[in-house]
Amino acid sequence: MWISMGPQHPMTHGLWTLKVKVDGETVVDTIPDLGYIHRGVEKICESREFTKITTYCDRLCYASANTWSHSYIYAAEDLLEVEVPERAEYIRVIAIELQRIASHLMWLGAFCPDVGNLTAFVWCLREREMMLDLLQELGGSRMHYNFPRIGGVKRDLPIGFAMRARAKLNLFLNRIQETEQLLDESTVFLVRTQGVGYAKPEEMVNYGVTGPNVRAGGVNYDVRWAHPYSVYDQLDWQVSVERPSIKGADSYDRYRVRVDEMRQSALMCLDALNKIPGGAETHYSEGDPMIITKAKERAEEGKTGFHHFEDSRGESMFYMVGGGDQRGKYPYRISIRSPMFITLPYASKCMIGYKVADIPAIMGSFDPCIGETDR
Amino acid sequence: MADEAQNYSMFNSQGLVDVVGDTTDAALEASSLKKFISVLGGRFFNWGQRKSLFPLHLGIKCCALEMAAAGGPRFDAERFGVFFRSSPRQCDILLVNGPISKKFSDPIVRLWEQMPEPKWCIAMGECAISGGPYYQSYNILEGVNTLIPVDVYIPGCPPRPEALIDGFAHLRKKIMKMGVKSSSERVGDAPIIIGDD
Amino acid sequence: MKIREEYAEEAAQQIVDAAVLRWQGTRLEAEVRHHKSGMARPYVYINCPRNHWRAVAKWLRFEMGVDHCSMITGIHWPDGPDDCKWEVVAHLMRMNVINPPERGGWTKQVIRDPNILQDDDVPMEFEVSISIPDTRSPSVQSVQEVWMGADWNEKETWDLVGIDFEGHENMRRVLQPHDTPVGFHPLQRQHKIRYHDFEYMYDDAQGFGRKAIDEGKIK
User: Fold this and answer.
1) Does residue A9 belong to any structural domain of this protein?
2) Which CA distances in Å does A271 have to A91, A152, A265, C38?
3) C177 and B138 in contact by Cβ < 8 A?
4) How many folded domains does chain A comprise?
5) Residue C120 is part of a domain; what is its CATH number?
6) Are the beta carbons of B139 and C193 separated by less than 8 Å?
7) How far, in Å, are A36, A361, C184, C186 from residue C181 at the CA level?
């Protein structure tokens, strides 16, 4: 019998349909059905200048907007051959890692009610508001900041940002300890997430799953060290890899990886604030060469650029071909690789063999974000 | 058999209800208590309706995160009676918070039709109002008002959670002034646009 | 912690040399290219002839250790040269997954120091470009069996661009609605977006400052 967990469902975290074939209570087969918010961003961006495409890339994965706009900016800089000043790279890293923390908090806040823990929803949203305050100081808005520019960043760290960021991140490191304790000592959470949704590492890599999902399987792969970009090689951080059982990574491992990643991101931000060239307390005005270099606006025909980037959910990539309309002011083709587009069919396969009640625990632990899936 | 039915017709439940209803109606009208009770009852229902607007748990795109933040600890929409329900049969408000694609146009009209009267529709964010940044897309409709009559427009990309709560407040004022009318009676009404004053 | 640049260069050059040696008689071209910004990391660019794609993919996967298929996408060049009216671009990565070894029912973590990775262990990016000459129904061979990750990528490329993949099981519409008309692939260049004639939005939404020539046009 086929059940449709239809587009409007409180537990699918996004607008997609999961058709589930059940035999009693056991899941026998699944078919995911995507495309409910397919906006044709790739087609629209063929008629936008390079600076205007950043606003579209923010809205691709709305839970993690900064990581996607930075992913696009690195690919555009590859296409337009721009060198970025070092202070701008540090500011970008701070923005990206703060956004990663906010994205994982949103995930945890949405995942815990699915498995029965409503307190964590409120606690995680409270911490997320702290991070969103910091991001609002940097970018100007709570969610879609349009923060990076080709060649640098929009504006420098505000005055007093370093002091507030250090205070809030240190408070966050304490609070995430409390939330982790709440969940790890809760029998209901442990019973619902341990032993469900086993995913073997070599299968995951073959399928193209990347990011925290594959690190939960014991595979030490992170684009930030394997294909380094920006200033990640100068910061002091550890890759968050779990040690799963031989059956593979279950939902509990995926949860552990993300909590550890949140900690690492907070430590990375604090480290970046210490190491930023020019000091974290100085404020350069907009357009200063310390934070942005003027980039050219046209890309001739024949030029291409791409960049692999570590997004909160995996490895995202933009591939851009120059030489579009208006004599190269628009890109000819922009192609977006979304980690969740590849992971969702695999996550749907992971559910086979478990009960219907395990579906939210498995699906939520893979952290679906349908905005980037449907593009 | 027909004769016996005639004799017992007054104890047949439909007939009994009709008789009791008609006599009570006549008595209330005679003592002009009917108007008093209908006004009191109407006020009571209006108060109950506007103080407990239940939106549907539908998250289409980015504005859904601001909707979730509005339900979160800082902006707490629940203290205003706003409580998200998962089933459309138990909701008053369809909060559309993202662009409507061609594939989703059919399900959203079905969700709207599954909601019982009285019901309102709030278009939150630019994508629901006019297609937003995707107005040129081949797959996105230009606004949800091509499918469903909208009562409140909340502009923003995304609108802050305070704007969403303001939208609910304006809707409450409108219900208080104009009463609880079903959506087919409200077809000609001017919609509320938040921030337009 | 990062890969040493000289090791990455060496590894890229080794791959290019192996490719040139293996595919000597064909029209396959391979070279080391560099990203043009940031750390200017090297990557391997391969221009693969159309009829060798599946063989090249298998060689890459099983002999060069390229285990991750990142993206397969298509581009439509209606004004391009005659032998390249359509192009399929595949981005692959060699991740060098070391399956965590098992001991006593648990797996042991393998954390590697990036500084010492050399030769075949260095993670490497690949860009493979396949040109298709002018045709009404472009197609290439499918690499669904080689990398499972290619599966949905190929579905999306067919759905949006129209390039077919021979041998692909269960090809279906994956992003557009299932009842889209057959043959409608929006990313082809002849399809234009809505209001494509007037891209510039007016600052005044009500049209107070419109130029006389734009009178009567819808925004």
Assistant:
1) no
2) 12, 20, 10, 21
3) no
4) 1
5) 3.30.460.80
6) no
7) 17, 37, 6, 11
Of A28, A33, A3, A37, nearest in space to A17 by CA: A33
Chain A residue numbers touching C149 (CB-CB < 8 A):
206-208, 342
CA A262 to chain centre: 12
The predicted-structure confidence for C67-95, as pLDDT tens digits, reads as follows: 888 899 999 988 888 888 899 999 998 87
A291: domain CATH number?
A: 1.10.645.10
A104 lies in which domain range? 40-342
Could you tell me if B155 and B194 are in contact, meaning their C-beta atoms sit under 8 angstroms apart? yes
Q: The pTM is what? A: 0.89
Cis amide leading into C177 (omega within 30): no
Judged by DSSP in three states, C15 sits in helix
List chain B domain ranges: 2-50, 63-193
Q: What residues of chain C lie within 8 A of the CB of A85, using their CB?
A: none
Question: Which residues are CB-neighbours of C14 under 8 A, at least 6 positions away?
Answer: C119, C120
C194 to chain B, minimum CA–CA distance in Å?
5
Q: List the subunits that have 3+ CB pairs under 8 angstroms with B.
A: A, C
Does A289 touch chain B if contact means CB atoms closer than 8 Å? Answer: no
Looking at residue B174, what is its pLDDT?
87
C145 within domain boundaries:
yes
Residue C72 forms part of a structural domain: yes
Predicted confidence (pLDDT) per residue in A256-301, tens digit: 999 999 999 999 999 999 998 888 888 888 878 888 888 888 888 8
User: Which CATH number is correct for B63-193, 3.20.20.140, 3.40.50.12280, 3.40.50.10490, 3.40.640.10?
Assistant: 3.40.50.12280
The pLDDT of residue C204: 54
> What chain B residue is nearest to C200 in terms of C-alpha separation?
B136
Domain count, chain C: 1
Tokens, residue C133 = 């000459």
- The answer as to whether C121 is a domain residue is yes
Q: Which domain covers residue C69, as residue numbers?
A: 5-181
* Chain B positions with Cβ closer than 8 Å to A: 56-62, 65-66, 68-69, 72-74, 86, 88, 98-99, 101, 103-104, 107, 111, 133-134, 136-140, 157-158, 160
Tell me the residues of chain A between 97 and 136 that have a Cβ less than 8 Å away from chain B.
106, 109-110, 121-122, 125-126, 128-129
Instruction: State both tokens at A8.
Output: 């409007």
Residue A16 lies in a domain: no
Q: In terms of CA atoms, which chain C residue is nearest residue B136?
A: C194
- Which chain A residue's Cα is nearest to B65? A63
Q: How far apart are CA B33 and CA B127, in angstroms?
A: 50
